[in-house]
Amino acid sequence: MLQVGLVGTGIISREHVRAIAHHPQCTLVGVADVVSERARQAAEQYRRHRACAGKRDEEPRPFASAAEMLGQLPLDVVVVAVPHGLHEEVAIAALRAGAHVFVEKPLAPTRAACDAILEEAAKMGRQVAVGHVMRYFPEIRTAREVVAAGTIGAVVSVVEVRHAEYFVNTRPRWFFDRELAGGGVLMTQGVHSVDKVQFVTGRRVLRVSGRAWYREDLGLEVAGGLWLELDGGVTATIVQSGYRGAPRHEIEVIGTRGRLRAEWGHGVSVTTSDAGYEPVPLHDGGGDPYQAQWDAFVASLLEGREVPVPGTYGRQVVSVIEAFYASSRTGGSWVSIET
């Protein structure tokens, strides 16, 4: 039975609490948050989910800090769900305590911070996993399977679009603090887009050109356009905005024999003729992506395998976003991805 600790109880932590509670080989034993009441609430949430799963574990102990929890509990795994700018500090502390770590995306807001985490993991002989959960959504898994099957021929290009108002009152305020967030829309949501493009095509970004549009009062980008060159000569475009307007979230893959479109809430469809798009059955008929993510992570640990989304991959995604920022500062010049 893996003993799990959670650091941070923001919105995304609810998904992790539920996934841990429904895994038969995990138990959440500690929850740390600077707001003690939120730690207690997360512990109670876990107890309720565990009861629904037919288990009667003790309620996790709440702690006021990660250091306090790590000093008192022997943990196999620590889930890091704090603001981006704190990932490095918390992940390294957990690794030094002897735990594997599961870090919410991005791994860290800079390549240097990612390197510090990975160096500590190597020193301690522990694994680092990154929560790039979009690849576990049925639309994206289905898109990858269709592309891999050659249904639309060889991939030529990809277009990823995501629009959703970003600077809203319901978003935690740390997202609007550059030091804690590390960036704006592209650091928070653009990492998802980069991962989706790479996962669906099975290719890696080699270089980037892009432009960002900023909120000058915050120093954070509210929109951006990225032009990517992937290995094998594939190109991709990512367009994201946090301005007001109807939300849009889709990815289209252009192949030599057709096109694939995956739209959130509208499934996956393919066209290979002028007759239009035809729907494709979703992978596994749907399912909870956060549970699938957690199950795959735990299985890799128990079986002694590399985790499905390792820290080295998370670092590469952050490198793409850093290259985008550098390109934007120089008017859109091409920037190669450092390996």
Automatic annotation (TrEMBL):
Chain segments annotated as coiled-coil in the UniProt record: none
Gene3D superfamilies attached to this UniProt entry: Dihydrodipicolinate Reductase, domain 2, NAD(P)-binding Rossmann-like Domain
Superkingdom, taxonomy of origin: Bacteria
The GFO/IDH/MocA-like oxidoreductase domain, residue ranges: 140-261
Pfam families tied to this protein: GFO_IDH_MocA, GFO_IDH_MocA_C3
InterPro entries: Gfo/Idh/MocA-like_OxRdtase_N, Gfo/Idh/MocA_Oxidoreductase, GFO_IDH_MocA-like_dom, NAD(P)-bd_dom_sf
Domain called Gfo/Idh/MocA-like oxidoreductase N-terminal: residue spans: 3-132
The protein's name in its UniProt record: Gfo/Idh/MocA family oxidoreductase
